[in-house]
Amino acid sequence: MAGRSTPAIVFDLGKVLLDFDYSVAVAKLEAQSRISALELKGLLDQSPLLYRYETGLVSTEEFFAVVQRQAGFRGDLKEFGAIFGDIFSPIEPMIKLHADLRALGLPTYLFSNTNALAIEHIRGRYSFYGLFQGHILSFEHGAMKPDPKLYEVVERLAGLRGGDLLYIDDRPENIAAGHDRDWRTILHVAPDATRGAIRRAGLRV
Ligand SMILES: [Mg+2]
Protein backbone atom coordinates (compact mmCIF):
# COMPACT_ATOMS: atom_id res chain seq x y z
CA MET A 1 0.00 0.00 0.00
CA ALA A 2 2.93 2.34 -0.58
CA GLY A 3 1.85 5.60 -2.11
CA ARG A 4 2.49 9.30 -2.06
CA SER A 5 0.66 11.28 0.58
CA THR A 6 -1.19 13.19 -2.15
CA PRO A 7 -2.79 10.70 -4.52
CA ALA A 8 -5.14 11.36 -7.42
CA ILE A 9 -8.73 10.62 -6.48
CA VAL A 10 -10.80 8.42 -8.78
CA PHE A 11 -14.57 8.88 -8.42
CA ASP A 12 -17.34 6.58 -9.53
CA LEU A 13 -20.38 8.59 -10.70
CA GLY A 14 -23.62 6.64 -10.14
CA LYS A 15 -24.72 6.38 -6.49
CA VAL A 16 -21.56 8.26 -5.48
CA LEU A 17 -21.94 11.76 -6.99
CA LEU A 18 -25.34 11.36 -8.60
CA ASP A 19 -28.18 9.11 -7.58
CA PHE A 20 -30.28 7.68 -10.40
CA ASP A 21 -33.64 6.06 -10.85
CA TYR A 22 -34.74 4.61 -14.19
CA SER A 23 -38.33 4.36 -13.01
CA VAL A 24 -38.69 8.13 -13.52
CA ALA A 25 -37.72 7.85 -17.20
CA VAL A 26 -39.69 4.66 -17.69
CA ALA A 27 -42.92 6.28 -16.44
CA LYS A 28 -42.47 9.18 -18.91
CA LEU A 29 -41.56 6.87 -21.80
CA GLU A 30 -44.59 4.66 -21.19
CA ALA A 31 -46.91 7.50 -22.23
CA GLN A 32 -45.38 7.41 -25.73
CA SER A 33 -44.78 3.66 -26.06
CA ARG A 34 -46.58 0.48 -26.99
CA ILE A 35 -45.22 -1.55 -24.05
CA SER A 36 -45.71 -1.17 -20.28
CA ALA A 37 -43.44 0.65 -17.84
CA LEU A 38 -42.35 -2.73 -16.46
CA GLU A 39 -41.40 -3.96 -19.93
CA LEU A 40 -39.60 -0.68 -20.62
CA LYS A 41 -37.63 -1.13 -17.41
CA GLY A 42 -36.65 -4.63 -18.55
CA LEU A 43 -35.51 -3.23 -21.89
CA LEU A 44 -33.51 -0.30 -20.49
CA ASP A 45 -32.42 -0.84 -16.88
CA GLN A 46 -29.37 -3.10 -16.39
CA SER A 47 -30.40 -4.88 -19.59
CA PRO A 48 -28.27 -6.58 -22.26
CA LEU A 49 -29.14 -3.65 -24.55
CA LEU A 50 -27.90 -1.08 -22.01
CA TYR A 51 -24.76 -3.15 -21.48
CA ARG A 52 -24.06 -3.04 -25.23
CA TYR A 53 -24.69 0.71 -25.31
CA GLU A 54 -22.48 1.42 -22.28
CA THR A 55 -19.70 -0.75 -23.70
CA GLY A 56 -19.79 1.27 -26.90
CA LEU A 57 -20.84 -1.75 -28.98
CA VAL A 58 -23.88 0.16 -30.26
CA SER A 59 -24.12 3.89 -30.99
CA THR A 60 -26.79 6.22 -29.60
CA GLU A 61 -28.63 6.01 -32.93
CA GLU A 62 -28.54 2.19 -32.92
CA PHE A 63 -29.63 2.08 -29.27
CA PHE A 64 -32.54 4.39 -30.05
CA ALA A 65 -33.54 2.34 -33.10
CA VAL A 66 -33.87 -0.77 -30.91
CA VAL A 67 -36.01 1.16 -28.41
CA GLN A 68 -38.23 2.42 -31.23
CA ARG A 69 -38.61 -1.09 -32.61
CA GLN A 70 -39.07 -2.99 -29.34
CA ALA A 71 -41.02 -0.40 -27.34
CA GLY A 72 -42.87 1.29 -30.17
CA PHE A 73 -41.66 4.64 -28.81
CA ARG A 74 -43.33 7.35 -30.89
CA GLY A 75 -41.12 10.36 -30.07
CA ASP A 76 -37.86 11.31 -31.78
CA LEU A 77 -34.31 10.84 -30.51
CA LYS A 78 -34.23 14.33 -29.01
CA GLU A 79 -37.33 13.61 -26.91
CA PHE A 80 -36.06 10.18 -25.96
CA GLY A 81 -32.64 11.53 -24.95
CA ALA A 82 -34.15 14.24 -22.78
CA ILE A 83 -36.22 11.66 -20.88
CA PHE A 84 -33.59 8.91 -20.77
CA GLY A 85 -30.88 11.29 -19.51
CA ASP A 86 -33.05 12.89 -16.84
CA ILE A 87 -32.82 10.14 -14.24
CA PHE A 88 -30.22 11.74 -11.96
CA SER A 89 -30.31 13.66 -8.72
CA PRO A 90 -27.28 15.22 -7.02
CA ILE A 91 -25.68 13.76 -3.89
CA GLU A 92 -24.68 17.17 -2.55
CA PRO A 93 -22.27 16.15 0.26
CA MET A 94 -20.24 14.13 -2.28
CA ILE A 95 -20.22 16.95 -4.84
CA LYS A 96 -18.93 19.17 -2.01
CA LEU A 97 -16.28 16.58 -1.10
CA HIS A 98 -15.09 16.57 -4.71
CA ALA A 99 -14.93 20.39 -4.71
CA ASP A 100 -12.94 20.30 -1.45
CA LEU A 101 -10.42 17.86 -2.96
CA ARG A 102 -10.04 20.06 -6.05
CA ALA A 103 -9.55 23.09 -3.76
CA LEU A 104 -6.59 21.23 -2.22
CA GLY A 105 -5.13 21.05 -5.73
CA LEU A 106 -5.55 17.28 -6.03
CA PRO A 107 -6.21 15.82 -9.47
CA THR A 108 -9.53 13.97 -9.69
CA TYR A 109 -10.85 11.58 -12.35
CA LEU A 110 -14.38 10.49 -13.14
CA PHE A 111 -14.55 6.73 -13.77
CA SER A 112 -17.98 5.51 -14.87
CA ASN A 113 -19.96 2.81 -16.61
CA THR A 114 -22.20 5.12 -18.60
CA ASN A 115 -23.47 6.16 -22.00
CA ALA A 116 -23.41 9.15 -24.34
CA LEU A 117 -26.98 10.31 -23.65
CA ALA A 118 -26.43 10.31 -19.89
CA ILE A 119 -23.14 12.19 -20.18
CA GLU A 120 -24.62 14.78 -22.54
CA HIS A 121 -27.32 15.44 -19.95
CA ILE A 122 -24.93 15.50 -16.97
CA ARG A 123 -22.36 17.73 -18.69
CA GLY A 124 -25.06 20.31 -19.39
CA ARG A 125 -26.64 20.24 -15.96
CA TYR A 126 -23.93 19.65 -13.33
CA SER A 127 -20.96 22.02 -13.16
CA PHE A 128 -18.90 19.56 -11.06
CA TYR A 129 -18.52 17.44 -14.21
CA GLY A 130 -16.15 20.01 -15.72
CA LEU A 131 -13.94 20.15 -12.60
CA PHE A 132 -12.35 16.73 -13.11
CA GLN A 133 -8.87 16.50 -14.54
CA GLY A 134 -10.08 13.66 -16.75
CA HIS A 135 -13.05 11.42 -17.52
CA ILE A 136 -12.83 7.65 -18.13
CA LEU A 137 -16.20 6.61 -19.55
CA SER A 138 -16.97 2.98 -20.40
CA PHE A 139 -18.64 3.63 -23.75
CA GLU A 140 -15.58 5.48 -25.06
CA HIS A 141 -13.23 2.56 -24.36
CA GLY A 142 -15.18 -0.60 -25.19
CA ALA A 143 -15.04 -1.92 -21.64
CA MET A 144 -17.04 -1.71 -18.42
CA LYS A 145 -15.87 -1.86 -14.83
CA PRO A 146 -14.74 -4.28 -13.42
CA ASP A 147 -12.89 -5.16 -16.66
CA PRO A 148 -9.16 -4.50 -15.98
CA LYS A 149 -8.93 -2.91 -19.44
CA LEU A 150 -10.82 0.15 -18.20
CA TYR A 151 -8.65 0.44 -15.07
CA GLU A 152 -5.59 0.48 -17.33
CA VAL A 153 -7.08 3.51 -19.09
CA VAL A 154 -7.28 5.33 -15.74
CA GLU A 155 -3.64 4.54 -14.98
CA ARG A 156 -2.56 5.67 -18.44
CA LEU A 157 -4.52 8.92 -18.35
CA ALA A 158 -3.44 9.80 -14.81
CA GLY A 159 0.11 8.60 -15.33
CA LEU A 160 -0.19 6.94 -11.92
CA ARG A 161 -0.51 3.42 -10.54
CA GLY A 162 -1.06 1.48 -7.34
CA GLY A 163 -1.18 3.48 -4.13
CA ASP A 164 -0.96 6.80 -5.99
CA LEU A 165 -4.62 6.30 -6.91
CA LEU A 166 -7.38 6.54 -4.30
CA TYR A 167 -10.60 5.08 -5.70
CA ILE A 168 -14.18 5.61 -4.45
CA ASP A 169 -17.00 3.36 -5.76
CA ASP A 170 -20.21 1.94 -4.30
CA ARG A 171 -19.94 -1.49 -5.98
CA PRO A 172 -17.80 -4.13 -4.23
CA GLU A 173 -16.82 -5.88 -7.50
CA ASN A 174 -15.49 -2.60 -8.93
CA ILE A 175 -13.57 -1.86 -5.73
CA ALA A 176 -12.14 -5.40 -5.76
CA ALA A 177 -10.75 -4.85 -9.27
CA GLY A 178 -9.04 -1.65 -8.07
CA HIS A 179 -7.72 -3.42 -4.99
CA ASP A 180 -6.24 -6.13 -7.28
CA ARG A 181 -4.13 -3.40 -8.92
CA ASP A 182 -2.97 -2.14 -5.50
CA TRP A 183 -5.01 1.04 -5.76
CA ARG A 184 -6.11 2.49 -2.44
CA THR A 185 -9.87 1.98 -2.26
CA ILE A 186 -12.93 3.25 -0.43
CA LEU A 187 -16.17 1.29 -0.74
CA HIS A 188 -18.70 4.12 -0.69
CA VAL A 189 -21.67 3.56 1.59
CA ALA A 190 -22.46 7.04 2.92
CA PRO A 191 -20.95 10.53 2.40
CA ASP A 192 -19.80 11.00 6.03
CA ALA A 193 -18.03 7.63 6.07
CA THR A 194 -16.28 8.34 2.76
CA ARG A 195 -15.11 11.78 3.94
CA GLY A 196 -13.81 10.10 7.09
CA ALA A 197 -11.92 7.50 5.04
CA ILE A 198 -10.35 10.25 2.93
CA ARG A 199 -9.24 12.05 6.09
CA ARG A 200 -7.71 8.82 7.38
CA ALA A 201 -5.82 8.62 4.07
CA GLY A 202 -4.14 11.85 5.18
CA LEU A 203 -6.08 14.40 3.12
CA ARG A 204 -7.35 17.47 4.96
CA VAL A 205 -10.92 17.67 3.75
MG1 LIG B 1 -21.80 3.46 -8.73
Bound molecules: magnesium ion
CATH topology of the largest domain: Rossmann fold
Please, how many domains?
2
Strand content: 5-15%
Q: How would a crystallographer describe the biggest sheet?
A: 5 strands, parallel
Descriptive tags:
205 residues, five-stranded parallel beta sheet, Rossmann fold, 47% helix, 10 helices, alpha/beta, DNA polymerase, domain 1
Question: Strands, helices and their partners?
Answer:
Layout: E1 8-11, E2 18-20, H1 22-30, H2 37-44, H3 48-54, H4 60-71, H5 77-85, E3 88-90, H6 92-103, E4 108-112, H7 116-125, E5 134-137, H8 148-158, E6 165-169, H9 172-179, E7 184-187, H10 191-200
Parallel strand pairs: 1-4, 1-6, 4-5, 6-7
Antiparallel strand pairs: 2-3
Helix pairs in contact: 1-2, 1-5, 5-7
